[in-house]
């Protein structure tokens, strides 16, 4: 019965969920042995820093209180976030991890190149760390930059097991900064994550409280007329897709945290006027994309996923679980707000950069929820036509065709080429053998090949005309100035803005082979997969050691998936085959088809998955064998 | 006034259910065609080089350890209607429970009326529910009907349940019983959100019988139909009290049996209840 009535209680204390407690966090660590060593309350917003080459971590349980309710968390050395590890490039490190839980645990070093036995994925790289056991991780740090580490067992990451991992470059930081702050974003639920997951199995929109209503409809009727109001809804309703399905979880169960601090707690980084600050943003959330900005400050992005990029000045960036961005700022004011609203616009994590503790700056309001567009559902369609009856009717038509159409049989003469993004999908003259002398693998293929397992109950949509452009900031971040939500000239980072610095990308060979995989799902059944096959029904992707390979990921769903490949880099390229940026986690937008190149240098079995924890656990997970 | 509107709605209902059921079937047909992979569809195992999760280089010894939620069994109890109907002074329950994976589940559906502490009639389906396409499950199993006054009936059941285009929840089951008895029942529900928590649910149900069942006061053909409107407030998604009104009518011989017993062949009820799941 607790299962039935607990949500009632939670809806009554919703404000606590959204704002959290001003003084929350870890209260006490269990077992008593740890309690004796640690203070009863860990200082907020300043995870302990551990450095050197020999580190000991203990996994235990701690009482925490973020929302007014005391809950048990899974913690590393009794803090949330876990200790920040500051290590040095080139060092051989030994990290002993002792499990004081009653269940197995693990730690995965996210984005770190290492022998596969040290990667920390139970069931793939090792057998996990049994209760009472100590596992010794030993590896050489072959890279530098901002990374993080977290449990790879069950939902332990979601209950508190995440921390920053910073590797200082041997040659010193490329960009001087007076101070260096880790800004780690995460999310917290008072419920048992497995219980939250099981609710989604019963009702996929359990946590979506921004669904279209009858009065939205009547408002559209009075604003735009009945026909337009109906046609705006027609395709969504016909296809049983929810245009506000922006996140599976929301503040209906989550509290968003910055450095382990709820918004009301206002994590504060103290600086002196004139200082240049390096902010190491890490998205350590279980299921939340964040849109981050510091009103009044330009953000100079210098690193993505730990790898240096050509500095790019932006006002805002979106990142998903697993991604990191290093940003340089020089604040002029006494206080400025770091504002990170969740992609579904139900809440935010927030902190302050201030010249002393206790200062704060205005906190922006949440942006309105924006409906997903045809671009997010079908890909390479002209979204300018959205919402206008004439073009909508045209779309309804093409939609009907889309579902039935076999791409190879598609009659291109019926398609309006001006409606396609740069013509990339249809332009066959650019493609393959017709280029004569050029290697056909010089560019990613554009013909869509759905797997035969995508035709079945596990998949609720297939995209036949994906978009391949990288310059889309994504739903909720498009044309913000035109919508009056941001000042004119407000620049939002896109993948197209990221270019690895010279020398970062060191393999310029044309790939020897090309793999195409699709990201798939069924929101009603709450199932997520690659190619319509959940992990349990899948087989590994086999790669050859040292071979240059292209991997195409096509997103057939309407959600953005941060795809994290362990053990090797994912080197993003454009649809013209130009290498752009080295990542370990690539966000793939709805109806988008992207490709990256990789060269596996480390033998073994590796995990490859969506870093939205619930999507991973639902089955959007593959093994990669390098042999 | 409300009564007249309901009666008109009720008269339209068989047609609507028919259209709906047909649309659902047509959709399923269409989906099935679409769901047939083209012959040149990509092989999802083409990149495996013959390796599996347990065989091949670097596989951990022993049985596979890593099992995610796709291999997990879940369960739910869904109380669609648990309500008191004012006119008949009866408590009506309509509860489904399921246990299983994403694609294969054991489903139990039970509904019935309790009057003065006596279970007047009930009908319970025990079904194997198998995902058929993205939105529909096929269901195969048995049904038992009990009557306080009358004869219990057993049936084989075959049906489908799922979400039709335009968000109609549809549940249609055909039954085969003793002595060549056949039956069909169909339900459709829709959710109209006034706000994120205040939701109006129109609901329609029809029952048909192939053969007279005088012991239970049922005639062949369309036996009865109900059309209801329920307005609920979701304190949470899982806990939603509601009030509503429902028209129920009997037809053909079933109506005659009722009238012979001095009962009305149709009733309009005001009701209050709870929708829940856990």
TrEMBL record, chain B:
GO terms for biological process: intracellular copper ion homeostasis. The keyword Manganese does not apply. One of its GO terms (cellular component) is cell outer membrane. InterPro entries: Autotransporte_beta_dom_sf, Cu-R_B_prcur. Keywords: Signal. The keyword Membrane does not apply. GO terms for molecular function: copper ion binding. This is Copper resistance protein B. It comes from Halioxenophilus aromaticivorans.
């Amino acid at each position: 019965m607790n299962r039935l009535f607990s949500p009632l209680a939670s809806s009554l204390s919703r404000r606590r969920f959204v704002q959290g407690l001003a003084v929350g966090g870890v209260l006490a660590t269990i077992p008593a042995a740890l309690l004796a060593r640690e203070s009863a309350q860990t200082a907020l917003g300043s995870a302990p820093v551990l450095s050197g080459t020999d580190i000991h971590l203990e996994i235990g349980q701690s009482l925490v209180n973020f929302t007014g309710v005391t809950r048990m968390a899974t913690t590393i050395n009794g803090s949330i976030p876990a200790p920040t590890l500051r290590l040095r490039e080139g060092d051989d490190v030994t990290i002993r991890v002792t499990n004081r839980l009653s269940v197995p645990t693990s730690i995965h070093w996210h984005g770190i190149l290492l022998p596969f036995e040290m990667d920390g994925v139970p069931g793939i790289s090792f057998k996990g760390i049994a209760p009472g056991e100590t596992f010794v991780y030993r590896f050489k740090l072959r890279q530098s930059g901002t990374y993080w580490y977290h449990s790879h067992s069950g939902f332990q990451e979601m209950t508190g097991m995440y921390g920053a991992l910073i590797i200082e470059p041997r040659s010193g930081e490329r960009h001087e900064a007076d101070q260096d702050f880790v800004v780690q974003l995460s999310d917290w639920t008072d419920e048992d994550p497995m219980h939250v997951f099981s609710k989604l199995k019963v009702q996929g929109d359990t946590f979506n409280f921004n669904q279209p209503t009858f009065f939205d409809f009547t408002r559209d009727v009075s604003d735009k007329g009945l026909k337009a109001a109906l046609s705006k809804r027609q395709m969504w309703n016909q296809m049983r897709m929810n245009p506000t399905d922006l996140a599976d979880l929301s503040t209906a169960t989550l509290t968003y945290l910055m450095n382990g601090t709820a918004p009301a707690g206002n994590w504060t980084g103290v600086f002196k006027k004139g200082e240049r600050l390096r902010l190491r943003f890490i998205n350590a959330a279980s299921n939340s994309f964040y849109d981050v900005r510091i009103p009044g400050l330009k953000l100079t992005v210098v690193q993505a996923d730990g790898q240096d990029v050509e500095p790019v000045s932006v006002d805002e960036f979106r990142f998903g679980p697993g991604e990191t961005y290093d940003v340089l700022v020089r604040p002029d004011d006494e206080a400025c707000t770091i504002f990170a609203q969740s992609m579904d616009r139900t809440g935010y994590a927030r902190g302050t950069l201030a010249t002393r503790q206790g200062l704060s700056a205005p906190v922006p309001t949440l942006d309105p929820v924006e409906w997903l567009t045809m671009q997010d559902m079908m890909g390479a369609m002209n979204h300018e036509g959205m919402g206008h009856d004439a073009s909508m009717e045209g779309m309804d038509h093409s939609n009907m065709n889309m579902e039935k159409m076999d791409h190879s049989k598609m009659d291109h003469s019926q398609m309006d080429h001006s409606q396609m993004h740069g013509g990339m999908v249809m332009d066959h003259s650019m493609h393959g053998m017709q280029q004569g002398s050029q290697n056909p693998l010089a560019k990613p293929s554009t013909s869509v090949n759905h797997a035969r397992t995508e035709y079945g109950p596990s998949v609720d949509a297939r995209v036949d005309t994906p978009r391949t452009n990288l310059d889309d900031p994504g739903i909720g971040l498009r044309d913000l100035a035109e919508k009056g939500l941001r000042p004119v000239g407000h620049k939002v980072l896109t993948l197209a803005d990221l270019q690895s610095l010279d020398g970062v990308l060191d393999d310029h060979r044309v790939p020897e082979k090309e793999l195409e995989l699709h990201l798939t799902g069924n929101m009603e059944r709450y199932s997520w997969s690659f190619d319509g096959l959940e992990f349990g029904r899948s087989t590994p992707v086999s790669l050859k050691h040292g071979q240059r390979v292209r991997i195409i990921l096509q997103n057939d769903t309407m959600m953005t998936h941060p795809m994290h490949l362990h053990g090797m880099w994912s080197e993003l390229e454009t649809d013209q085959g130009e290498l752009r940026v080295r990542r370990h986690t690539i966000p793939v937008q709805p109806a988008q088809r992207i490709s990256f190149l990789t060269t596996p240098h480390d033998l073994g079995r590796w995990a490859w998955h969506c870093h939205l924890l619930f999507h991973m656990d639902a089955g959007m997970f593959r093994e990669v064998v390098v042999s | 006034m409300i009564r007249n509107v309901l009666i008109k709605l009720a008269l339209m209902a068989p047609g609507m259910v028919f259209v709906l059921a047909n649309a659902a079937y047509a959709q399923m047909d269409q989906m099935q065609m679409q769901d047939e992979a083209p012959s040149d569809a990509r092989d999802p195992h083409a990149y495996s080089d013959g390796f599996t999760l347990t065989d091949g280089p670097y596989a951990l010894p022993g049985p596979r350890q890593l099992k995610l939620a796709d291999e997990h069994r879940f369960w739910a109890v869904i109380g669609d209607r648990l309500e008191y109907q004012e006119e008949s002074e009866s408590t009506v329950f309509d509860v489904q429970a399921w246990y299983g994976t994403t694609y294969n589940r054991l489903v139990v559906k039970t509904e019935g009326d309790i009057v003065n502490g006596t279970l007047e009639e009930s009908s319970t389906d025990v079904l194997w529910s198998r995902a058929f396409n993205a939105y529909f499950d096929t269901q195969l199993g048995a049904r038992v009907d009990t009557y306080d006054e009358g004869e219990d009936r057993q049936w084989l059941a075959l049906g489908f349940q799922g979400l039709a285009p335009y968000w109609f929840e549809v549940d249609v089951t055909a039954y085969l019983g003793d002595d060549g008895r056949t039956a069909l029942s169909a339900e459709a529900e829709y959710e109209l959100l006034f706000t994120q928590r205040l939701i109006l649910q129109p609901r329609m149900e029809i029952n048909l019988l192939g053969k007279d069942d005088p012991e239970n006061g049922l005639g062949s053909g369309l036996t009865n139909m109900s059309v209801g409107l329920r307005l609920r407030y979701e304190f949470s998604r899982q806990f939603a009290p509601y009030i509503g009104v429902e028209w129920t009518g009997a037809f053909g011989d079933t109506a005659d049996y009722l009238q012979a017993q001095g009962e009305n062949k149709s009733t309009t009820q005001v009701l209050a209840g709870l929708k829940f799941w856990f």
